[in-house]
Specification:
By secondary structure, chain A is α+β, with helices and mostly antiparallel strands. Chain A is 27% helix and 32% strand. In chain A, α1 (2-20) crosses α2. By secondary structure, chain B is an alpha/beta fold. Chain B is globular, with a radius of gyration of 17 Å. The chains are: A alpha+beta (113), B alpha/beta (215).
Chain lengths: 113, 215
């Protein structure tokens, strides 16, 4: 259900940017979700459609890019991708890790006229 | 035409959370965000924790509940400041709702502010409240698959508490599977195996939290 709230925040950002650029119509919204973000894209898409109804972004296409998880080991400093749900350094076996990619929720750009 | 934005969708929540965090830091208040499923035992954990810590620390509680103030009623007996946030159907607290109620507390006379988030393992872990740290509370009655199913919470939390360990003989909960999954998700995470009704493991938890808030 948090999808609804996050979609409302997204539509706020989209409409503000569109208004600053004096767009009359938003046709496409490009966003990025990290793989670890617990959002169901279908539900999010529906929530976004509803939250922009009656605005200049009504009917705009929502393009979601999913970013894979990337970790950095605090012990050996190497970066790597995790497989499955095993958060362990592939190189030295340490579990002292930092998530450097995979948690983001980003608006990249909007398209319109 | 394409307009580049490059902005965090949760910017509004994040900015307010940063504000809350710096206010609490300036007042030396530790805000602890408790996240669990409904019925894992957050309120009972708070009862036991208040009983043990309230002699040495000034404690306050923010109770996040979809509706009712029943959890707050249970804590009334400790005579500590409690504020209820009813989310009216909302599945999580956010930094704006926390910021609005901070004014009800005398922050100059507070050491620990517990936030009992809405019972839910997904939504609350997405919203930074400005807390000092998060705690993941799970119970054996929910099954042993929670870390594997909700990895984000166990990555973000400063500790995990496994409650109702006295019920293990009556469930199909497998402690080894649970610990193995938890190690895979976050091998650095301290785990406390506790029973809030029987008292098992609570002293270790109290020691940990006292060290954590008084470095």
């Amino acid at each position: 259900m948090h999808e609804l709230r996050i979609a409302e925040d997204l539509s706020g950002i989209v409409l503000e940017a569109a208004s600053n650029e004096k767009l009359v119509k938003v046709t496409r919204v490009n966003i990025t979700f990290g793989q670890l973000v617990q959002i169901v894209p279908e539900i999010f898409g529906t929530a976004f459609t509803e939250s922009v109804r009656g605005t200049i972004a009504e009917g705009s296409e929502l393009n979601i890019e999913i970013v894979k998880v990337r970790m950095k080991c605090a012990n050996c400093g190497k970066e790597f991708r995790i497989r499955g749900n095993i958060f362990e350094c592939k190189h030295c076996g340490s579990t002292d890790l930092e998530i450097i990619k995979g948690k983001e929720m980003f608006v990249k750009s909007i398209e319109g006229e | 035409m394409e307009i580049r934005i490059m902005k965090n969708i949760l910017d509004r929540n994040q900015n307010k959370a940063d504000e809350v965090r710096s206010l609490l830091k300036s007042k030396n208040v530790n805000m602890i965000n408790l996240i669990s499923s409904p019925g894992a035992g957050k309120t009972t954990l708070l009862e036991r924790t208040c009983e043990r810590l309230m002699k040495s620390y000034r404690i306050g509680v923010i109770e996040g509940d979809v509706t009712t103030d029943r959890d707050a009623q249970r804590l009334k007996k400790y005579d500590i400041p409690i504020v209820v946030i009813n989310t009216e159907g909302g599945c999580h607290l956010d930094s704006h709702s926390i910021s609005k109620v901070l004014g009800y507390f005398d922050l100059d006379n507070l050491d620990i502010l517990f936030v009992e988030n809405v019972g839910n393992l997904i939504c609350p872990s997405q919203f930074d409240l400005g807390e000092t740290f998060k705690l993941a509370v799970v119970s054996t009655a929910e099954g042993d698959d929670k870390p594997a199913k909700y990895p984000m919470l166990f990555r973000e939390a400063a500790a995990a508490l496994l409650n109702k360990i006295d019920l293990i003989p009556y469930t199909n909960f497998n402690l080894e599977h649970f610990k193995n999954d938890l190690r895979n998700i976050n091998g650095q995470l301290p785990l406390f195996e506790i029973s809030c009704t029987r008292g098992d493991g609570l002293e270790e938890w109290f020691q940990w939290i006292m060290e954590k808030i008084c470095p």
